[in-house]
Amino acid sequence: MLQELIPFIDRHPILSVTWVTLLIGVILTFIKNYFSKVKEIIPTEAILMMNKQQALVVDIRAKEEYKKSHIIGSINVEKNNFKNNKLYELEKHKARPIIIVCAHGVSSLTFAKQLYKMDFQKIYSLKEGISGWNKANLPLAKGKSK
């Protein structure tokens, strides 16, 4: 097999470089997530934390999206409030576990990492965000935010 590898690389350099680049990217992503201080949790883990540890769910989507549907008991703190340092709502909950939620789980991970840097210790990101919550057929509330 190794004898066939060198001629393959010689005949297909672009494919080989692409494959090696992707492999390195996957390995680096795995390592970065493994050592991350923010853990991604699935909806069932979030429910357990909400029920047993009084975790606070913070929805960082726009207020209009939040009003359409949100996790019951969650509060809405838009991403731009973080940029403007308007996180006084969260300061009083620093000791509680905080679960950050966005639409698809991408923005929440970034936001959670920023909160961790601000000395919030028990920070989690909901994997796949509200869309993952919907996929799991879990209930959502509609209407005004808290």
UniProtKB/TrEMBL annotation:
<keyword id="KW-0472">Membrane</keyword>
<keyword id="KW-0812">Transmembrane</keyword>
<dbReference type="InterPro" id="IPR050229">
    <property type="entry name" value="GlpE_sulfurtransferase"/>
</dbReference>
<dbReference type="InterPro" id="IPR036873">
    <property type="entry name" value="Rhodanese-like_dom_sf"/>
</dbReference>
<feature type="domain" description="Rhodanese">
    <location>
        <begin position="51"/>
        <end position="142"/>
    </location>
</feature>
<protein>
    <submittedName>
        <fullName>Rhodanese-like domain-containing protein</fullName>
    </submittedName>
</protein>
<dbReference type="InterPro" id="IPR001763">
    <property type="entry name" value="Rhodanese-like_dom"/>
</dbReference>
<dbReference type="Pfam" id="PF00581">
    <property type="entry name" value="Rhodanese"/>
</dbReference>
<keyword id="KW-1133">Transmembrane helix</keyword>
<feature type="transmembrane region" description="Helical">
    <location>
        <begin position="12"/>
        <end position="31"/>
    </location>
</feature>
